[in-house]
Amino acid sequence: MIDHGMMVGMDLLVTGIGDAFSSRSHGSSGLVRCDGGWVAIDCPGMVLAMWRQAAEHAGVSCPPEAVRDLVITHLHGDHCAGLETIGFLHRYIVPGDGPVPRLHALPEVLERVWERLAPAMDGGGSDLEDYFEPRPLEPGHPAVIAGCRVESRRTRHSVPTAGLLFSDAAGCLGWSSDTEFDPEHIAWLERADCIVHECGNGGNHTTFAQLRSLPEPLQSRIRLIHMPDDFEPAESPLVPLSEGELIEVRTGAVSDF
Length: 257
Fold this sequence. Notes:
This protein has helices at about 45-60, 75-80, 85-95, 105-120, 185-190, 210, 215-220, and strands at about 10-15, 30-35, 35-40, 65-70, 100-105, 135, 145, 150-155, 160-165, 170-175, 195-200, 220-225, 240, 245-250, 255. It is α/β, with parallel strands linked by helices. The strands form two sheets. The chain has an eight-stranded mixed beta sheet with strand order 6-5-4-3-2-1-14-15.
């Protein structure tokens, strides 16, 4: 098993690659290892099983209580349905009286997340702050999360959604989040050494054909996620991700362990 605590720089553990209708894969998500700890990008249902399976496959140690920061890109269930589990985990299972996990999202997402959670979690007069510490992500104003600089940008989707850039001294990771094909968004992500981009069936999602229209040097830095179960990519520089894959993000090089 890799002693991840001794590693310097940023890594991405891929925890889910599927779209909202997948019966084979977990919802698109990842765990970013920054120098200051693990950060979850999105939190689909079955989150504890998803994290355990990915960590075991990659040979890393990532107990769920070690994930103290969660970044939620938007409020579709395949991206946030596991928040109830994480909130209850830290309230009833994790020992001690430590701080609640930090929940990072666009302000308009944070304003409505309790609407999703309250029916299951508001017993006894509880509110969101009893389970999570809300931390707004303001596009144009970078945040520092677990030692990484995190920038956000609103995407073209059916509900408010944030694309992300994680950067540290070693490299930069881009995360498209759910979005229509948007050349301006891709240009914003192009600063990243590795770009994780969704690949869906059109509509409010970007297609494989649209990504193939990009310059090939850029395609070579793109990894595909949010794929339907029947997705069969033609041979190209665009590489589909797999669950349990561990990616080392460094300037000038992106490699799998």
